[in-house]
Amino acid sequence: FPGDRLDAAMEVIAARVSASRPQLGLITLLGTLTRHDGPVVFRARFTGMFGRRPTGGASGAHAGTTGAAPA
């Protein structure tokens, strides 16, 4: 309703390196909106694709290409 205060929270529930594009990571998030007086009014689970940070090595390789979680 107009005037309600909502608090937002995001939780990372999974993270992995993309098998087909190792320069990218896939993150699964759980987002929750809670009204100021307590009840959850919205919850969504979604997956986002993000660029990964390169390592400091001269080869330009990306960290964790062995299947570790994205940096």
Tell me what the structure shows.
The protein is built from no helices and three strands. With 71 residues, it is mainly β. A three-stranded antiparallel β-sheet has the order 1-2-3, with no helix packed on it. Mean pLDDT is 84; it is low at 58-71.
How are the SSEs placed, and which strands pair?
Elements: E1 6-17, E2 24-35, E3 40-51
Antiparallel strand pairs: 1-2, 2-3
Give descriptors for this structure.
71 residues, mainly beta, three-stranded antiparallel sheet, 3 strands, 51% strand, elongated, disordered C terminus
Instruction: Bin the helical content.
Output: under 10%
Beta-strand percent range: over 45%
Rg over C-alpha atoms, rounded to the nearest angstrom: 17 Å
Number of strands: 3
Q: Describe the main β-sheet briefly.
A: 3 strands, antiparallel
Estimated structural class: mainly beta
Distance between the termini: 39 Å
The topology string of helices and strands comes to EEE
Q: Give the number of helices.
A: 0
Give the overall shape, derived from the CA principal axes: elongated
What's the pLDDT, averaged over the residues? 84
Unreliable stretches covering 5 or more consecutive residues: 58-71
Biggest sheet strand order reads 1-2-3
